[in-house]
Amino acid sequence: MTGSEPAGSERYGGGAIVIHDYDPRWPARFAEERARIQAALGDLVVTIEHIGSTSVVGLAAKPIIDLLVGVRGLDEARAAAVQPMRALGYVYVAEYESWLPDEMLFRKGPPGPWTHHAHLMEPTGGRWEEYTLPRDYLRRNPEVARAYGQLKKSLALVFEDDIAGFRRAKRPFLEVILKRAREERART
C-alpha cells in the first residue's frame, strides 16, 4: 500500500495474525461474493477482480477474500454503494480514505478477523495496477509466490496481532514485485 497509514497501531482483531496454506476453495468463495456484489451494485460496477494472496494458486495467505470492484465513478459509488454493501454484511471503513483517497474500503465478517475486503475504485486509477500487477506476477512466478508465503508466515509470528506492522514489514518485498511486474510489462 502507498501513502501513510492511520496513526496508532491497528490490530488484526480476533487474535494473532495467522497465515494459512493455500485453500483451493478460495476462488469459489470469490466467485460467490463477486456475484452478490454485482447484483447489489448493478450498473455501477464495471468489473470485479480477485486480488490479494487468496487469488494466487499455491500462495499462503490470511483467509480474507479481497475483491477489487471497478466502478464507473468514485463519487457515484460514494453516493450509491454504502447501503447495498451494508445489506451484504460489509462495513464501510470511511477513515481509510485519508490515506486511500481514490478507494472505498469495505470489510465483511465478524469484527475481526474479517472474511472479505472489497476495494471500490475506478479501474483507470493508478492504484488499480498496484493491486493487479503483483497478483499477475506472482501467478506467473510460483517460486516467488512460495517465498512470499514463507515471508508472511515468518512475519505473522513476529508481529502477532499488529497488522500495520505486518504490512509495513512485507512492503519492501511487494515493492520489488511491483517494480519487476512493471519492467516485465514494459518489455512485452
Q: Which keywords apply here?
A:
188 residues, five-stranded mixed sheet, alpha+beta, 15% strand, disordered N terminus, Beta Polymerase, domain 2
- Rg, Å, rounded: 16 Å
| Largest sheet properties | 5 strands, mixed
Count of β-strands: 5
The separation of the N and C termini measures 26 Å
CA-based shape: globular
Detailed description of the structure:
With 188 residues, this protein is an alpha+beta fold. The chain has one domain (26-187): Beta Polymerase, domain 2 (2-Layer Sandwich), CATH 3.30.460.10. The chain is 46% helix and 15% strand. It has helices spanning 26-41, 74-80, 82-87, 126-140, 142-159, 163-187; strands spanning 45-51, 65-71, 90-92, 104-108, 116-121. Strands 1-2-5-4-3 form a 5-stranded mixed β-sheet, with helices on both faces. A hairpin with a 7-residue loop joins strand 4 and strand 5. Helix 4 (126-140) packs across helix 6 (163-187) and helix 5 packs antiparallel against helix 6. The radius of gyration is 16 Å and the shape is globular.
What would you say about this model in short?
The protein is an alpha+beta fold and 188 residues long.
List the helices and strands and how they pair.
Layout: H1 26-41, E1 45-51, E2 65-71, H2 74-80, H3 82-87, E3 90-92, E4 104-108, E5 116-121, H4 126-140, H5 142-159, H6 163-187
Parallel strand pairs: 2-5
Antiparallel strand pairs: 1-2, 3-4, 4-5
Helix pairs in contact: 4-6, 5-6
